[in-house]
Each structure stands twice: as structure tokens, then as C-alpha cells.
TrEMBL record:
This is GNAT family N-acetyltransferase. It comes from Streptomyces sindenensis. The keyword Transferase applies. Residues 127-265 form the N-acetyltransferase domain. The lineage of its organism: Bacteria, Bacillati, Actinomycetota, Actinomycetes, Kitasatosporales. It is an enzyme of class 2 (transferase).
Length: 265
């Protein structure tokens, strides 16, 4: 398939016909938009807008979403904007309405079969990868996340624990440890009925970067995705991860920018 065909498939399967990404959340059609709504610790936001959305429709949709989440009492929500979404100035309209743009990420996709046998994809000496199945493993994941990114992992704890307890079949969590200390963690969302599985996380503590941990985590998840019949792996990649993934064979389909609306207190 050509990159534009894969992007169209991605838009259709994971955005227009999105499925809830965990227990307790729901996906709703709101006029020209599709949104996910959950509790305060879940991801809340707009995942898709109609290709023909024009300036007038965009302004009305933005106003409606601010009112919707305000009515629910949520402190914030996100509008996940892709570079091929319209109208062309949608990002400017979101900013004018009070949204703040966070760093853009690159939308990358690769065929699963091309990643299952990556050369050098075994973890480096001294590092063990294991699947997370319980609360103790979640704590190790959270600790690795906090050490790698320098940010609080409270939301990650909630989301992973909820998935393991209530809907473990379409979710894979991994932690990489060296001498018993967590050095990286990663997740994979499996989207039943679609061609895609999504890779998330993979942040590695500074002293273990550049030693193959990230590559090993990608290959491990690719093998699981292949076993379950998925065709493509998808990643929203940071500037740090994108060059690594490109070297592994991922193709860029565009960019995605989180626009976050936070209620004034």
C-alpha cells in the first residue's frame, strides 16, 4: 500500500471509527467530530474531524467542545490535530479559542512483518524484558517513566492498572530492568477489527540510551502483534524517537499536534 492509502486506512479505522481506549470511557459522534469521553484520569479529547470541515463549522465545533467538557466539570481536554486535517488554519483557530499547542509528534507506520526479525533486536547484556501483569509491575513501569521523562506517572499508573484489571486482552505492557532496577517501559494498544496496533512509551533512562533497549522493545511488541494478526504498527513519535524508528523502517505519514484546553481556575 502507498503511504497515502495507509494514512486513509488509519484515519478510517482509528479515528473516524475509533474505539474506546480503555474501560469506563466512551466514543461519541458530535456533529462533524468524533471524541472520547472518560473520567478525569482518562484521556479526553477530539480524535477526528470530517475532511470537509470549513472555517465556520470549525469555530462552531470548537465552541461546542469547550461547552461540553466544561459541563462535565473536566479541568482539561485535548484536540488531537493531524497535519492533513482541515481547515488549513484549524490550529490557529484552536489557539484563538484558548487552546495551547504542545510539541508536535510524527505519525509513523511500519508493516509488522518487517519488524519481527530486526537485527540486533535482543536486549543488551544485563537487561531483562518482561510483560507486566500486576500492580508491582505497574509500579516499576511508572518508576521507569518518571526517571526517563522527569514527569509524574500518576495517570499512567491509573490507566495501566485499569487495563490489567478490566480489559487485559487488547493491551500489552512491558518493563525493562537492569540489576532489578527499571530502565525503560513500553505499552502496546491492540485495536481489534483493525489492521493496526499502536506503540506507546519506550522512554529509557539516560544511562541506558543508545544501547538497544528501545529497539528491543519495538521488536518484542512487533512479534506479539504479528502473532495476533495485525498488519501495521503505528507510533506518535517524539523528536527523540522518530529518527530511531525511521532507521527501523517506519514511514512518516504526517504530524500530529495535541492542542490542550485548560479551564481557568
Amino acid at each position: 500500500m502507498r503511504p497515502t492509502e495507509i494514512r486513509d486506512l488509519f484515519d478510517r479505522e482509528l479515528r473516524e471509527y475509533a474505539r474506546p481506549d480503555g474501560p469506563g470511557v466512551r466514543v461519541e459522534r458530535s456533529g462533524p467530530l468524533v471524541r472520547q469521553v472518560g473520567g478525569p484520569d482518562d484521556w479526553n479529547g477530539v480524535v477526528w474531524s470530517e475532511p470537509g470541515l470549513d472555517a465556520e463549522g470549525a469555530d462552531a465545533a470548537i465552541t461546542a467542545q469547550i461547552a461540553h467538557w466544561g459541563g462535565l466539570g473536566h479541568e482539561e481536554f485535548e484536540w488531537k490535530l493531524y497535519s492533513h486535517d482541515g481547515p488549513a488554519d484549524l490550529g490557529e483557530r484552536l489557539r484563538a479559542a484558548g487552546f495551547a499547542a504542545e510539541p508536535s509528534e510524527t505519525l509513523l507506520v511500519a508493516p509488522v512483518e518487517s519488524l519481527t526479525g530486526l537485527p540486533g533486536a535482543h536486549p543488551p547484556a544485563g537487561v531483562e524484558l518482561r510483560v507486566v501483569t500486576d500492580a508491582a509491575g505497574v509500579e516499576l513501569m511508572a518508576l521507569a517513566h518518571e526517571r526517563a521523562f522527569g514527569t509524574d506517572a500518576g495517570r499512567l499508573r491509573h490507566q495501566v492498572l485499569t487495563r490489567l484489571e478490566q480489559a487485559p486482552d487488547d493491551f500489552v505492557a512491558l518493563v525493562a530492568s537492569a540489576d532489578g532496577e527499571p530502565v525503560s517501559s513500553a505499552r502496546m494498544e491492540l485495536y481489534p477489527g483493525t489492521a493496526f496496533a499502536g506503540l506507546w512509551g519506550g522512554g529509557t533512562v539516560a544511562e541506558w540510551r543508545g544501547r538497544g533497549v528501545y529497539r528491543a522493545l519495538v521488536a518484542y511488541r512487533a512479534r506479539i502483534a504479528a502473532e495476533r494478526g495485525y498488519r501495521f504498527l503505528q507510533v506518535d513519535a517524539t523528536d527523540m524517537s522518530a529518527p530511531i524508528l525511521a532507521r527501523l523502517g517506519f514511514t512518516a505519514l504526517g504530524t500530529t499536534t495535541p492542542y490542550v484546553y485548560r479551564r481557568a481556575r
